[in-house]
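Comment on this:
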Amino acid sequence: MYVAVKGGEKAIDAAHAWLAEERRGDVSVTELSVAQIREQMTLAVNRVMAEGSLYDPDLAALAIKQARGDLIEAIFLIRAYRTTLPRFGATRPVETADMDCIRRVSATFKDAPGGQVLGPTFDYTHRLLDFKLAADGTVPEAPTRETEPAPVPHITEFLNKEGLIQSEPQSDTAPRDLTREPLELPADRALRLQSLTRGDEGFILGMAYSTQRGYARNHAFVGELRIGTCAVEMDIPEQSFAVEIGEVELTECETVNQFKGSKVEPPQFTRGYGLVFGQTERKAISMALVDRALRWKELGEDNAGAPAQDEEFVLYHADNIQATGFLEHIKLPHYVDFQSELELVRKMRADAMGALQEAAE
């Protein structure tokens, strides 16, 4: 498409070599290994896995290293690699109620059954630079668990027993796969959730923040936020039972939102939902808020005209890979296009100047 550039191949090869040199940095400094990135930059790794739709910490860490820390570029690399992988089956839906939680908090019930587990979080840290980290200081040991992990019930289920929260409809129809089929509107909730979990964290956060500032009139409480590992099971055709093939770390968020009721529904609470790979709680909470805002039609609510309620606006602009591709292509050569624009503007100026001269005479 851009063959008009002379010497382009040689220049591109030189740019690749320069990029590799910049990626390595000062050779007197020890090179950062993939294992170090995987173990010490876990939140970045988790984001790349979530938005790249591929659960593989090693590959995500490699992509971050290759992308020099540019997470969107790393997500692009993971998505591109994902398309080369064969698909040999599908797993059963994971049971998040059986999650081995390392963090589980609720903003709605203080004495929640199963207890509050603060876990590894920045929530209670002072936002001050820790210069011990620069000096390679020792790391304090975390306390060990005093009890064996046990299944922790979902808090919203306790509201459900009293009929205070809307029951989620069950469907036997397999949801469409957004990684294999293009997005089409209108989208059902399952497809919207797929789009949101792959969406750019910053964009989803901005949409969620807008709902909190009044653009959707949906005040939410975090009914529960939980982070932990879930077993992944797969049905084996030769066997009559499912086999556990591994574990994945997930972040799940359920919000509780007020609902004044409709002609067919009594006043009750409704839910927003977020589920993301890894410890990605800001994304999961944001996803739950936007999910609830997008449910206005199915709940019979009025559309306040908020951006977060506009399905087309949210879903078509949430994907950072599509956005990056469309944005960054404008820095590539557009010589022919610009020359035509340039000639057009020159002609328009000449016509305008001629008209001014005629008017002056």
About this structure: The two ends are 48 Å apart (CA to CA). The first strand starts at residue 100 and ends at 105.
